[in-house]
Design brief:
mainly beta
């Protein structure tokens, strides 16, 4: 570790982080640390886990009204949303111990808005949620935050938080060894195998540089993603847990330079992956998760296929092949779902009209989100 002491602040970072940014810590980095450019001064641990005590961090609300995970057997009625407190956070032994208490994310945000930031943390997942990963079906018509609180994860780093409808979250599963990048607009942007282990300390560095988000775990790059859709350029950073127990021994946030290049041209790389725990619509629905196939473009899930099982009086054709959560462009939220083969509404006229209305609604919400991103204070 390298420690840089400056008047009024202490910056701690891994040498590998500096190398990843193009060399040693030069005058630009030191100047940023002195001035606190980006709306907040840089912070890091020096002895205690973080220079900013937990009492100054802010709890973030969850806005998804249907946060409970679906059991493999399904449920007879939708489960009620969990009630706060969603987690327990306390400082002890020079570190931070976070416990998730509900089937949703519990989040704490560092005060101050930032941009072009590198977040470093050392964490240990002491107890995993142990739940299988679930992916949402349907499309955006059920609102923003599609899949915000679905299970299968243990610990998260929040980036670009401007409100409960606008943020990124990089999330990790120690039980499954997987990383995800989730976005309040685009849903799951990345699902990547990642060597996270239960009970083992890990050093995580996340670099959020405008449209480029990258991550290193224990010195090895595990994610490098360009958000070509609607990148979040500023906001708060923080930590999150999902019904797990995690110890954080270090946390820091330092100003970085903007990426030197523009996003490279997107090159499609489609592949299929069998998967269980695929939802038909929102988890508030009373059907059980399905087994099916996920279609990936690189590491981004762009849709999945399941065989629908519905009650006879539901006006749906039984055993129809259903294409769920279809993204029309990388980084976009799911825009529609459709039946393949037998019509889902038994030949009724409503289905084409519903699909058309949902696509139109998705476009209008996308425009609204773009406008709000240009006026963050509205």
């Amino acid at each position: 570790m390298r420690v840089i002491s400056l008047p009024g602040t202490v910056v701690v970072m891994a040498v590998t982080t500096l190398v990843a940014q193009g060399g040693a810590a030069g005058p630009g980095l030191l100047a940023d640390a002195r001035t606190g450019q980006g709306g907040a001064a840089e912070v890091a641990a020096a002895g205690p886990w973080c220079a900013v005590p937990l009492a100054e961090w802010v709890a973030s609300p969850t806005t998804d009204p249907c946060t409970e995970a679906m059991t493999p057997e399904g449920t007879a009625t939708p489960a009620p949303p969990p009630a706060p407190p969603f987690g327990e956070w306390k400082e002890e032994g020079g570190g931070l111990l976070a416990r998730g208490l509900a089937n949703c994310w519990s989040t704490r945000l560092l005060p101050g808005e930032r941009q072009e930031v590198g977040v470093t943390t050392r964490f240990t997942v002491l107890k995993s949620s142990g739940m299988a990963r679930q992916l949402p079906g349907g499309c955006m018509r059920w609102g923003f935050r599609w899949g915000e609180n679905l299970p299968g994860w243990d610990v998260g780093v929040v980036l670009g938080y401007q409100g409960p409808l606008s943020f990124y979250r990089l999330q990790l599963s120690a039980a499954r060894g997987e990383l995800a990048l989730w976005d309040a607009d685009g849903g799951f942007l990345q699902l990547i195998p990642c060597p996270v282990e239960l009970g083992r300390p890990h050093d995580l560095t996340v670099r959020w540089q405008g449209a480029r988000l990258s991550a290193d775990l224990d010195g090895k790059t595990v994610m490098d993603y360009w958000d070509r859709s609607l990148p979040r350029l500023r906001g708060r950073v923080g930590l999150a847990v999902w019904k797990s127990e995690v110890r954080f021994d270090r946390f820091g946030a330092v100003k970085l330079d903007a990426p030197a290049s523009s996003p490279p041209p997107h090159v499609p790389a489609f592949r299929l992956e069998p998967s269980g725990n695929l939802l038909q619509g929102h988890p508030a629905f009373t059907v059980k998760p399905y087994s099916g196939v996920i279609v990936f473009d690189g590491y981004e899930p762009i849709c999945h296929f399941v065989q629908l099982v519905a009650e006879e009086d539901d006006n749906y054709s039984a055993n129809s092949l259903l294409q769920e959560a279809v993204k029309l462009k990388p980084g976009w939220r799911a825009a529609y779902y459709t039946f393949i083969g037998p019509n889902g509404l038994n030949g009724g006229w409503r289905w084409p009209l519903l699909v058309l209305l949902e696509c139109l609604r998705g476009w209008l919400l996308r425009c609204r989100s773009s406008v709000l991103s240009m006026f963050p204070k509205l």
